Each structure stands twice: as structure tokens, then as C-alpha cells.
Amino acid sequence: MVISVRQQGNTEGTPVRTVTIKLPDILALRLKQTVARRRATQSEVIREALEAHLAAPSMGSFLELAGDLAGSLREGAPDLSSNKRRLKGFGR
Fold first, then answer.
1. Domain residues of the chain, as ranges?
2. DSSP 8-state secondary structure symbol assigned to residue 58
3. Phi then psi for 16, rounded to 5 degrees?
4. Burial environment of residue 46 by CB neighbours within 10 A (0 to 12, 13 to 18, 19 or more)
5. Looking at residue 85, what is its pLDDT?
């Protein structure tokens, strides 16, 4: 990632950083279409998308989401992930 600092831009007089990113062709095309439809700059659209993404609450890890279910089964083998005998043939 390339980052440089400049003292002017469309961010109301505050110093801004220039960040260079690489996008897959399909994402670059979607960005270009959004810019044209909204009559905005790429920077405006990317800043708004980044702000929205970073402001959204985190979903958490799978364990956090299913934490109340972890260890809730009373039956079944307790060593499914560590017993080599039970892992025989797994992934084939």
C-alpha cells in the first residue's frame, strides 16, 4: 500500500492521505458505474463506503456468535477433533 500526505483536498481543509489500492476488474467497474450514477468522485464514493463499513458493528467470530451453543450437546464423542482414529479418511 502506498500512503502519502498532502495538505489539500475535498475534506474540508483537513490534511488527507493518498492511499493507492488494487481492485479486481469487476469491483473497479462497479466503482466506475457508481461514480457516474452519483456524479461523484472516486474518492468520495470510496471514503463513504469505508466510513460505512468501519462504523458498522462487528459480527464477531463464529465462537462469539454461537458461544451459547458450544458445549451444549451432552451426547456424542468429546474428542472428534483430536482422536486420530475418528479423523481417519477425513478430507478424502
1. 2-69
2. P
3. -125, 160
4. middle
5. 81
